Amino acid sequence: MNPISRRRLIYGGAAAAASLGGLAEAERLATRFGLIPPDGGGIYGPGETLTYTCQRLLTARTPAREFPRSMISKDPFANAVAPPTEEFKRLLAGGFRDWRLVVDGTVARPMSLSLADLKSLPIQSQITEVACEEGWSYIAEWIGTPLSGVLREAGVLPQSRYVVYYAIEKGLWESIDMADAMHPDTFLTMGMNDGDLPVGFGGPLRIRVPRQLGYKSLKYLTHVTVTDDIKKFGSGKGSVDPDYGYSWYAGI
Amino acid sequence: MPAAPQLEMTKQTRRHPAVVRVTHWLTFIAFVALVVTGFELVISHPRFYWGEVGNVNTRPLFVIPIPASRDTVPTGYSYVMPDQNGWSRYLHFEAAWVVLLTGLVYGIYGLSTGHFRKNLIPARNDWSWRAYRDRIAKYIYRKRADRAEEATYNVLQRTAYLVVILVLFPLVIWTGLAMSPSFTSAFPATAELLGGRQSARTIHFFVTWLLLLFLVVHVAMVAVSGFWSRVRSMITGQTRNSQTRSSQEGQ
């Protein structure tokens, strides 16, 4: 072996060791600052982690795109009908007077709120776009109260990392990180385009996460759980989406 | 670089530097993944729109007349294709990262070493329609390539590569980012400058076809000039200056 190639070998080895050490350090920092998504493992993990890390560094607090009233879609597309559960039919027949939103988990004051309770909170509206992962989209005015207000009321404990939320249908659940949960555009939505939120669009209660694709804006919301450990839920990947092959973070 | 005739059969010329070779193949693999998964994503809603919004209740710009992989789209077919969106989305965005990072490495390399200036920007005296016309005529009449083209690219190759590198890839990345609801919350202009989210999706679709057109012509030219020797030189970096082929008609 001539001296040049030996030197190259040593330099190469040192560079490889340094980059491995760098990667390990990067992973430690990323974990500490919550930059790795719950589905950040497996063959698609590197791509998901890059996307999520960049979005958290870049867009943790940026406001959702809003549109002028004139751009509200005249004929928005509702891709779902009412959930076929007996419980939903019973609540619908009662005019949703018995609909409850349970807020629990790592909060100081767990709560159970009726729609009337939610409507007594500060009501805001946003004109934002629903973008489905299939490719279609529409714009609507969404009326509700920011999730952050309810969470503050419940007293989120400092160790909290994620907010898990459930639909009335069994097994349908999602989660978002605290950055999205406390974002002022993340709404508990009860109204749409100056009326009550129609059942086809998730009425009586839908979460709106306008900076992510439509599937994160879960319809027929009944339960919000704040947690410090997302691994305890389902298969530990943050929502049912990864179980169906879909990414947990849908901000792209 | 013309070699002395008696050396020609053995002379090995370094044609492609390692960075170019590695980024070339990484981009190729990622591009194939992007096209396959992109096709899967399109068939879940094979309708295209212009502007900000579009759905089955709005008038499309055009419709691809195929069955969809979702029953939410009225296609006129009763058949619903297999839905592959989940893994397709995961792989699409991972492959997009490969293209983006590879492109950054290649771009920095190309600028810092003069690779773009030396090998891709057409020579000064080729900055004319005449140069293009002459080179096209050579292709049409299947004339032998100049000796100069043994070691470098002609004006048409240079132009095609520059359009792909400086226009099509940046545009396909831009239109992709314009469909990200989170990215556009930080940079709304990425969507607005294109006319909206659905316009971005439509442009993304057409730029993909232009990139595919480039790929087809590129591979056809490689095949014409000796498929395996061209592929070998893009893998090993070596090219043989021999007279055994009417080589270098293009790639």
Write the layout of secondary structure elements.
The complex is a heterodimer of chains A (about 250) and B (about 250).
Chain A: H1 3-32, H2 45-59, H3 86-93, E1 100-105, E2 111-114, H4 115-119, E3 124-131, E4 137-146, H5 147-154, E5 162-167, E6 173-177, H6 178-181, E7 187-192, E8 195-196, E9 206-208, E10 221-227
Parallel strand pairs in A: 1-10
Antiparallel strand pairs in A: 1-2, 3-4, 4-7, 5-6, 5-10, 7-8, 7-9
Chain B: E1 12-14, H1 18-42, E2 47-48, E3 62-63, H2 85-113, H3 115-120, H4 129-140, H5 155-177, H6 183-186, H7 189-192, H8 197-224, H9 227-236, E4 238-240
Antiparallel strand pairs in B: 1-4, 2-3
Helix pairs in contact in B: 1-2, 5-8, 8-9
Brief digest:
The complex is a heterodimer of chains A (252) and B (251). By secondary structure, chain A is an alpha+beta fold. In chain A, 28% of the residues lie in helices and 23% in strands.
Largest sheet of chain B: 2 strands, antiparallel
Reading off the top of the CATH hierarchy, the class of chain A is best stated as Alpha Beta
Number of strands of chain A: 10
- Assembly state (oligomeric): heterodimer
CATH fold type of chain A: Sulfite Oxidase, Chain A, domain 2
Please estimate the helix content of chain B: 55-70%
Explain this structure to me?
- The complex is a heterodimer of chains A (252) and B (251).
- Chain A is α+β, with helices and mostly antiparallel strands.
- Chain A has a single domain, classed as Alpha-Beta Complex (Sulfite Oxidase, Chain A, domain 2).
- Chain A has helices at 3-32, 45-59, 86-93, 115-119, 147-154, 178-181, and strands spanning 100-105, 111-114, 124-131, 137-146, 162-167, 173-177, 187-192, 195-196, 206-208, 221-227.
- In chain A, the strands form 2 sheets. Chain A has a 5-stranded mixed sheet with strand order 2-1-10-5-6.
- The termini of chain A are far apart.
- Chain B is mostly helical and 251 residues long.
- Chain B has one domain: Transmembrane di-heme cytochromes, Chain C (Fumarate Reductase Cytochrome B subunit), CATH 1.20.950.20.
- Chain B is built from 9 helices and 4 strands.
- Chain B has helices at 18-42, 85-113, 115-120, 129-140, 155-177, 183-186, 189-192, 197-224, 227-236; strands spanning 12-14, 47-48, 62-63, 238-240.
- Chain B is elongated and about 60 Å long.
- The model of chain B is unreliable at 1-10 and 242-251 (pLDDT under 50).
- The interface between A and B is large, with 40 and 39 residues.
